[in-house]
Amino acid sequence: MKRKTSNLSRGMLFTFVWISSLYVSAQTINVSINIKESCIDMPVSVSVDDLMGNINSETLILYEITPSGQKFIHSQLESDYTSRLWFILEGFSAKNSTRNFVLKFQERDSLNKLNTDIHIYKSGENLTLRQKEQQILSYRFGTMYPPEGVDPLFKRSGFIHPLWSPGGEVLTRVQAPDHYHHYGIWGPWTLTHINDRKVDFWNLYEGQGTVKFAGFLSETTGSVFSGFRALQQHIDFGAKGEDQIAINESLDVRVWNINDKVRVIDYTTILNTPLPNGIMLDAYRYGGGIGFRATEKWTKDNSTVLTSEGKTRIDADGSNARWCIVEGESEVKEGRSGILFLSHPSNRAHPEPMRVWPMDANGGRGDMYFEFTPIRHESWELQKGNNYVLKYRMIVFDGEIDKETAEMYWNGFSLTPEIKINSKNKL
Q: Does 7 reside within a domain?
């Protein structure tokens, strides 16, 4: 049977070669991973579409071949439009090196009863992901109302808050008195046009539109990753007749089970519009992508920004970058916490424009706000019948991350692999 070459989802950087000479038996498959650029603790996957007939009765178990013998590696099967086996390439992998694995079919036993370290909990109006007893993030699916006495137009749902550092520091902020429409980590569009009519989904007090949670599409837990997909709707208040949906957004949040020292979180948003004439996302300094309102603790005096192009808090605003480190003082033992934001090369306008608040923001305090803004310099028209995808990854850390480490994380997120599957053997 001839096998087709396929692309890995989420764009990893590895070459997978299934080597016929190393094929041991019908019960084992050898896999070599050729690393093109240095990386750290990165998720990888391999297609197992041709093996699905065997997986029904047996379990795929993965081992890495090391100098001291075969080491068991946690793996997780994902079946959507295609079937892939995910695992973490643990530790540091050097540029132009090769790591070898063996994939076995084994009956289920105690080895295969994996402990899922990252769990999903629903309580009240929040979905929370935890690793053991440590909280990772909460997604607010219930409507959050502003404080008493504040215009109820500021209410909304569908955002991440809190986001915790590995050491337990809360890094996000919602409904700050200076910007009640700021909601932790979120991505509404600001200046848009439906036909000739302006609609603002960001500045809620304008009363032109909002974003709301409309339902969970899926929830997943496993030994390699856990997460959820949520439907979020951008609602236009100004249409004739009833309010209308201007944009449907499928938000996919996935937390990789690396270790308890760093969080690797994928934030993927898929947009489409049901409007017959589409919607124009106008060029503006705010809008869409992924926005982050940082903890009120961070000001110009105790927080920093560093981009892949060497820009800092002083000159990052309006520039383009592949990645950006946003960090500041915290109460953890390391004394600092932060987020490395990664923009995928497939994103519109990549390297992506950014909005970074200037040093004198908010009356001179210099509070921290960061956003990847794909419409910063050029408008973007969404047409009915098309899906538009933006992919981001957040590396949440305590302590510090230098530019060399940031580059290795970006390598693991960004580069497209070559996949070669031997077509001589039927598995």
A: no
* 251 contacts: CB under 8 Å, gap ≥ 6: 158, 229, 230, 231, 232, 267, 268, 269
Residue 110's alpha-carbon distances to 72, 107, 180, in angstroms, are: 13, 10, 51
Is the model more confident about 234 or about 108? 234
Report whether 393 contacts 268 (CB < 8 A).
Answer: no
In this structure, the answer to whether residues 216 and 78 fall within a common structural domain is: no
On the CB side of 315, how many CA atoms lie within 13 Å of its CA? Answer: 4
Q: What is the CATH number for 43?
A: 2.60.40.1180
Q: Is the pLDDT of residue 10 over 80?
A: no
Q: Between the ranges 25-29, 381-385, 413-417, where is the mean pLDDT highest?
A: 381-385
Q: Is a pLDDT exceeding 90 seen at residue 226?
A: yes
- Asked if 54 and 128 sit in the same domain, the reply is no
Residue 232 inside a domain? The answer is yes
Taking Cα atoms as reference points, which of 235, 253, 252 lies closest to residue 244?
235
Which of helix, strand or coil describes residue 367? coil
| Residue 331 CB coordination number (10 Å) | 12
Q: Which helix (H) or strand (E) holds 403?
A: helix 403-414
Confirm if 78 and 181 have CB atoms less than 8 A apart: no
Residue 360 is predicted with a pLDDT of 92
Q: 19 or 150: whose pLDDT is higher?
A: 150
Residue 329 lies in a domain: yes
Identify how many contiguous H helices and E strands the chain contains and give both numbers.
Answer: 2, 32
Q: Is residue 426 part of a domain?
A: no
Structural domain harbouring 201: 118-413
Helix (H, G, I), strand (E, B) or coil at 406: helix
